[in-house]
Write a structure and sequence with these properties.
By secondary structure, the protein is of the alpha/beta class. The protein is built from 4 helices and 5 strands, in the order βαβαβαβαβ. The structure holds NADP nicotinamide-adenine-dinucleotide phosphate. The site of NADP nicotinamide-adenine-dinucleotide phosphate (NAP) has 23 residues, from α1.
Length: 148
Amino acid sequence: MKTVFITGATRGIGRELVKQLTALDYRVFGSGRDEALLEELKAETGCLGAVADLSDPAQVVGLYAQAKEALGQVDILINNAGLNHRKAPVSEIELDDWELQYAVNLRAPMLLSREALKEMASRKAGHIINVVSTIEKPRSPTIPPTVR
Ligand SMILES: NC(=O)c1ccc[n+]([C@@H]2O[C@H](COP(=O)([O-])OP(=O)(O)OC[C@H]3O[C@@H](n4cnc5c(N)ncnc54)[C@H](OP(=O)(O)O)[C@@H]3O)[C@@H](O)[C@H]2O)c1
């Protein structure tokens, strides 16, 4: 049975992914900050999970260790948690907002991928899926896909 560790499991896309993956018999470990929502999801789907704030790098690394411990190994990491509250133009960016978005949307997925790759590389197997913003879609048809 394949194992999946998915962040942002308490709401939205992540919550629905947990429901669908557990229904397909994947062993799933989900995370979020809202403990009540996570406990409800665990009871409903049989998934495992833990609460952590991904803006804190120590909690990010600790969370990966918890997922690995609970699942035995992580076959698939889905970096899904993210936020984009303001969608402000660069000229209006506020530092606190920028730092939070950087920490949750970029640093946390990089740290989780680092932890995952330590074991995926040694067994030459595994998948990392990053759920990103539509802002990331290619804008210029003149740039070949290989250099994007
Ligand atoms: N929905 C869209 O139309 C859309 C479009 C493009 C891209 N996306 C991307 O898809 C992903 C999921 O989007 P969604 O619409 O499902 O979002 P959502 O409903 O707002 O859910 C976000 C999830 O991320 C978790 N999260 C947020 N900040 C966190 C933090 N500091 N620490 C730990 N967990 C945190 C939330 O958990 P808690 O609330 O429990 O902390 C929640 O489970 C995001 O990366 C988003 O950028 C969504």
